[in-house]
TrEMBL record:
Presence of the UniProt keyword Zinc-finger in the record: no
Predominant place of localization: secreted
GO annotation (BP), single: proteolysis
Cellular component, GO, one term: extracellular space
Superkingdom field: Eukaryota
Listed PROSITE patterns: TRYPSIN_HIS (PS00134)
Protein name: Serine protease
InterPro entries per record: Glutamyl_endopeptidase, Peptidase_S1_PA, Peptidase_S1_PA_chymotrypsin, Peptidase_S1B, Trypsin_dom, TRYPSIN_HIS
Annotated GO MF terms: serine-type endopeptidase activity
Annotated family: Belongs to the peptidase S1B family. Belongs to the peptidase S1 family.
Residue ranges constituting the Peptidase S1 domain according to the UniProt record: 118-363
Length: 373
């Protein structure tokens, strides 16, 4: 059964290459954004962290697109509060950093009214990625596994982007977050030139993870505070700093364009869905609806994929080259009450100009290197 899936994956990847070549001719272009500046203003020490929350591989909310579209626009003071962030260190200590926000660009309000259902939609369109050539090479190699069960994406030499709920439930850190590790998929045995068949289930079982400990973690206050006022999912992202460089190619982050500007309105992401243990699962789908902070889509997904980096490939005019960038973080689902009918949707957190500025500063420590979103 597993071998029969491999030709289908090859056909799909050929189609994916064809689609990319088509896009190269059309050249969907990364928009230019006026990126704001997010700078630390003060740092205060907090009590030692508690690690008593149950790990969550998925997150749910009752606030859907219409709720967000009709909610009050946050004030500057609100945004400063939401973008402040808590930092957890490997020894259990933590700090709260208040921030200042400067040089705001114009806010673009995306529109859309389509709806979709959650998780698996009839035929399962996910692809388990087989073959060392795919698994250990870009872009699939940027996907990593968290010891709490979620997925993350390499975004710098020592940094991993993931979902906040994978390490913090809004009230407390999850069990295991203090000793959080990031796993890198690698073959247990080298083929030694023997040409091992990496589509063979017996060989797949010999794939293992190499783990690196996390040094510190940043979580926006909007996630911690927002869970009480139904905006938590808008800030469901976190950045992990590893104790040592991972020495692999990583994917850049970018500001999320409106859905209508994405190539084919399509997004892509890979993660470690818990119904396929040990497998890296790839999927793509169309964006059907969006708010300023969230993307609603029909990507088939299961718990464990949370924290996956949602990416697209577009033309960078200034550099005259194609670039893949992470424009969002897969979060989970939202329940929506539409005319008395409960519906749920898969959701990804968009990287807005403000979030880009914050995450970039976490990585680089210098806002001058964070002007190109």
């Amino acid at each position: 059964m597993m071998q029969s899936k491999f030709p289908a994956l090859c056909v799909f990847l050929s189609f994916f290459t064809f689609v990319e070549l088509q896009n190269e001719e059309e050249k969907p272009t990364w928009p230019n954004y006026r990126v704001p500046v997010v700078l630390p203003q003060s740092v205060s020490r907090l009590d030692k962290a508690k690690f008593d929350a149950e790990p969550r591989l998925d997150v749910a909310s009752s606030c859907g697109p219409e709720c967000h579209k009709h909610s009050a626009t946050p004030t500057l003071e609100d945004l400063k509060d939401y973008m402040s962030y808590e930092t957890l260190y490997s020894n259990g200590s933590r700090t709260m950093t208040d921030v200042g926000l400067y040089v705001f660009g114009s806010r673009v309000e995306p529109k859309g009214k389509s709806r979709s259902k959650r998780q698996i939609y009839g035929h399962d369109s996910r692809f388990s990625v087989y073959g060392k050539h795919f698994l250990l090479n870009y872009p699939f190699s940027t996907s990593v596994k968290l010891s709490t069960g979620c997925t993350g994406t390499l975004v710098a030499e020592k940094h991993v982007l993931t979902a906040a709920h994978c390490i913090h439930d809004g009230k407390s850190y999850v069990k295991g977050a203090q000793k959080l590790k990031v796993g890198f998929l690698k073959p247990k045995y080298k083929d030694g030139g023997k040409g091992l068949n990496f589509t063979d289930p017996r060989i797949l079982e010999k794939m293992k993870f190499q783990w690196i400990r996390v040094k510190r973690t940043h979580v926006p206050k909007g996630w911690i505070k927002g869970n009480a006022i139904d905006i938590g999912m808008d800030y469901d992202y976190a950045l992990l700093e590893l104790k040592k460089p991972h020495k692999r190619k990583f994917m850049m982050i970018g500001v999320s364009p409106p859905g209508r500007q994405l190539p084919g309105r399509r997004i892509h992401f890979s993660g470690y869905d818990n119904d396929r243990p040990g497998h890296l699962v790839y999927r793509f789908c169309d964006v059907k609806d969006e708010t300023y902070d969230l993307l609603y889509q029909q990507c088939d997904a299961q718990p464990g994929a949370s924290g996956s980096g949602v990416y697209v490939r577009m033309w960078k005019r200034q550099k005259q080259k194609w670039e893949r960038k992470i424009i969002g973080i897969f979060s989970g689902h939202q329940w929506v009450d539409k005319n008395g009918d409960k519906q749920d949707f898969n959701v990804a957190v968009r990287i807005t100009p403000l979030k880009y500025a914050q995450i970039c500063f976490w990585i680089k420590g210098n806002y001058l290197d964070c002007r190109d979103g």
